[in-house]
Every structure is written in structure tokens, then in C-alpha cells.
UniProtKB/TrEMBL annotation:
Protein name in the entry: Acyl-phosphate glycerol 3-phosphate acyltransferase
InterPro entries cross-referenced by the UniProt entry: Plipid/glycerol_acylTrfase
Signal peptide: none
Domain Phospholipid/glycerol acyltransferase: 43-153
Keywords, alphabetical: Acyltransferase, Transferase
GO biological process: phosphatidic acid biosynthetic process
SMART domains given in the database record: PlsC
Length: 223
């Protein structure tokens, strides 16, 4: 019998391949800095979230299989077994979901990649409001954080489906330099997590600004 992390990792690799086909088939991703992602060991992807395709896009263009924490509302009907089968993690955002926390830490302890939308929900995609979850996982696991900015264009006509960028339009995915969230002390107190959250916010905001300069984009995707 396979260890759960093994089957989950295989599922995430299947999800990555599906994402590659879908994202490159429907749009024109331009990926910058993917080489910065550590080739092995635990990593946390911190992704700005302004659009429904942000997660699938990162899954499709990232160099390693990714396990995203996804709100439980997305696990409806046939999507439930599908998302679970490709290694994605269901989380209840209204409570302290200990099952989701344990599974996320298991991904990191097995040397996998955990994907998080630190803003908690879809918004402006500017990292202006961070939840403490990202800091907790980073400090608890010691895994480096790789900031990712997904930048696209929905300000021109051509959208066949409401809420999606125009088909075959360019979407930029910019990977940043890995960084440590903790102060090296290993402390997990509320104060330590608050300080880590501040450090993370500064790093993510700086990465987003840099990504906008690199790509020439000043606005994020809007739904």
C-alpha cells in the first residue's frame, strides 16, 4: 500500500500535467524566474490571488508538482474527487481546520511544495491583506517561501466566458527569490508569527512591484 504522501505527490504530478495542457492550450503563459524554485526539499508558494485561474496556472507552469490549499466550497460535485485525486487540499476557512493544517504540514515534511493564497480569498491580488496561515506554515516547517505573481490582462474584449481572461491572451507568472519567514529562533509565539507576517508582506509586496516592472504590467487580473 502506498504511503499517502506518495500517492498525493503522484496525484499532484498528474495535476501539473493537466495544468500544462490546459494553460498552454487556452492562454499564452510567459514564465519568468522558475529556475529560482529549489529543485528539492519543502517549499511554500505564496501566490497573489485576483483570479480563478491563478491556482491552475501556477500548477501548470511550476517546475514541481504543487499541493494548493483550496477553499472547501470549490470541492463540489465531481470536482471533489478530482481535486483530491490531483493532490489538492480542502480547507474550511471559517474555522481552524486541523485536518487541513496536518495535511499541509505533511506535504512539507515529505519535502513537497505547498501552494497558498496568503490573502485568503480572491481580491485585488496585491498582497495588501495577509492571513497568518502562511507565517504559521513557514515558521513551523522552516520551509522557504517563493513569492509568485500572476499578472494578466482582462481589460480588452475577447472573453468568451465571463470572468476568464481572453483566450490566447498572455498571462505572466513571475517567480521570486526564496526567503525565510522566521527570524531563525524557531519561536512560534503570536508575536513571532506577527513579526513573520510583516516580513512576508514586505517581501511579497516588493516582489509584486518588481514583477510589474519586469512585465510592464501595472494592473492585476480582474474577475
Amino acid at each position: 500500500m502506498n504511503h499517502p504522501s506518495v500517492s498525493s505527490e503522484r496525484g499532484a504530478e498528474v495535476g501539473r500535467r493537466i495544468g500544462v495542457g490546459l494553460m498552454y492550450g487556452l492562454w499564452k503563459p510567459r514564465v519568468l524566474g522558475a529556475w529560482k524554485v529549489p529543485a528539492t526539499g519543502p517549499v511554500i508558494f505564496a501566490v497573489n490571488h485576483s483570479h480563478n485561474i491563478d491556482g491552475p496556472m501556477v500548477m501548470g507552469v511550476a517546475p514541481r508538482p504543487t499541493h494548493f490549499l483550496i477553499k472547501k466550497e470549490a470541492f463540489i460535485g465531481p470536482l471533489d474527487p478530482f481535486l483530491t485525486g490531483i493532490g489538492q487540499l480542502k480547507v474550511d476557512r471559517e474555522t481552524t481546520d486541523r485536518t487541513a493544517i496536518t495535511r499541509a504540514l505533511d506535504v512539507l515534511s515529505a519535502g513537497g511544495v505547498l501552494g497558498i493564497f496568503p490573502e485568503g480569498t480572491r481580491g485585488e491580488g496585491d498582497f495588501a491583506s495577509l492571513r497568518a496561515g502562511l507565517a504559521y506554515f513557514a515558521v513551523r516547517s522552516g520551509a522557504p517561501i517563493v513569492p509568485i505573481a500572476v499578472l494578466g490582462s482582462s481589460d480588452r474584449p475577447g472573453r468568451l466566458i465571463k470572468g476568464l481572461p481572453p483566450l490566447r491572451s498572455r498571462i505572466d507568472v513571475v517567480f521570486g527569490d526564496p526567503f525565510e519567514a522566521g527570524d531563525g529562533s524557531g519561536r512560534r509565539t503570536r508575536k513571532a508569527l506577527d513579526e513573520a507576517t510583516e516580513r512576508i508582506q514586505k517581501q511579497l509586496t516588493a516582489h509584486l512591484e518588481n514583477a510589474r516592472r519586469l512585465t510592464g504590467r501595472r494592473a492585476t487580473l480582474s474577475s
